[in-house]
Amino acid sequence: MRAEWNRKTKNRKKASSELTRQEEFIRKHRRHHHEIASWRTIIFVLFLVLWEVSANLKWIDSFFFSSPSRVARCFVDQIRNNSMLAHIGVTLLETLLSFLLVILFSLLVSTLLWHSKKLSEILEPYLVVLNSLPKSALAPLFIVWLGTGTRTIIVAGMSVAVFGSIISFYTGFQQVDPEKITLIHTLGGSRRDAFCKVVLPGSVPILLSTAKVNIGLALVGVIIGEFLAARRGLGYLIIYGSQVFQLDMVITSIIVLCIIALGFYQSIQVIEHQIKIRFKM
Amino acid sequence: MENILELKNIGYSYHNLHGETKALQNISFGVREGEFIAIVGPSGCGKSTLLSIIAGLLSPEEGTIVVNNPDGSLHYPKIGYMLQRDHLFEWRTVYRNVTLGLELNHKMTPERLEAVDRLLKDYGLDKFKDKRPDELSGGMKQRAALIRTLALEPQLLLLDEPFSALDYQTRLFVSADICRLIRAAGKTMIIITHDLSEAVSLADRIIVLSGRPAVVKNEVTVHLTLADDSPLAARNAPEFQQYFNMLWEDLTHES
Could A204 and B91 be called an inter-chain contact, meaning their C-beta atoms sit closer than 8 Å? Predict the structure, then answer.
């Protein structure tokens, strides 16, 4: 992006003085972005400093509220005895698996719903109820049905995201311009062609935005599952830490979770960007 | 010339819980080979419904369509249908857009693709083959949509207000341009329009429909003395105003 700007500004310089307005515009635009980024960093650093200082000056009890230095120490300790990386790995893997399963399963179901109007009408109230049900209420049931282990946690992760994503996929499919579908029919295509050539490619933006929401939801579900039914993973670490009053461990895990959530969001953003470039959307 | 298609007493109604809405009633007319027919009528009178019936997308509730091929065969003429907007898909290149029909019909044969290449070249689009539709102008998009329709080698072209999404100036040029290309390709055409001047300037025959339920109110055969081939020539023809007024009378005096 920046390289392109530079190239453009160079071209402008050759041209008349009027075009320096363009340069000015670009400079303003850049300054705005720098400003935003700086404020973000300032807030973050201020927060860390305030936290550390108030813990050191005993404004807050660092046994309960921890402090950045204690978090860092705890993180290094956990890395050293090798358990942190394993916990992170487990949570990552479970989240990714349940995310992929959610996408696959909801694509399949929403395709079926699109295919049969009658089926979608029949299932609508069920989907709405299941979507608004607090999924954490289901987790104890999953433990009884499926035992404790990876399977339960993946199902818990899926349960949080799946109904919402079925509804958004299906809504996306329905928003495709009906004239485009008529076009497929006038060209002698079948309903299946209409789906593959129009509905699916036309819904890519909605698929991507739903994926962005779902990766976060899958993480929520996986952590809930790990609270209740795991011996590994960050959710387990949080529960374990709170039970033995090692709040450093709890807060460290929460911060790692923040970083994971950010990482997931960014990766989907990158994928979205790639797809948009590829299809010039 | 013989009629290749004959509509006989076509009737169609829309149904909903509040009752029945008659859209078409007792519509009969013939279509001759190579002829350009314009269908005009008040908005919402069922023009599009009529076109969908001719295209076979809807089946008529009453009446029949008789096929009368010159070679005596009974199969329905191959239809090409152009919608109000070009509906080129942004996620496909221009080339993959114009070959969409062939792709859907599994007819991506070398001969057909060669014909598409020839059309692209004739219509000045060969340089834009690998571009995305949004890089084309409004007129070029309509040409691309026409190639997509012609690629399947239809005998009868149905155009449902194909220029209504264009601004007025572009519209004058594009409508004349597209119709010239269709004439050059030797196709039969039925075009729906609510623009009376467009109907007079493009068609050999104009069928005037009444308001709902639509019946054929008048059939006008158009003969214009043309000075040249420009899009404005037809509109400057001495008879133009007479035809226009005649159609205007038909449409405004509901009886």
Answer: yes
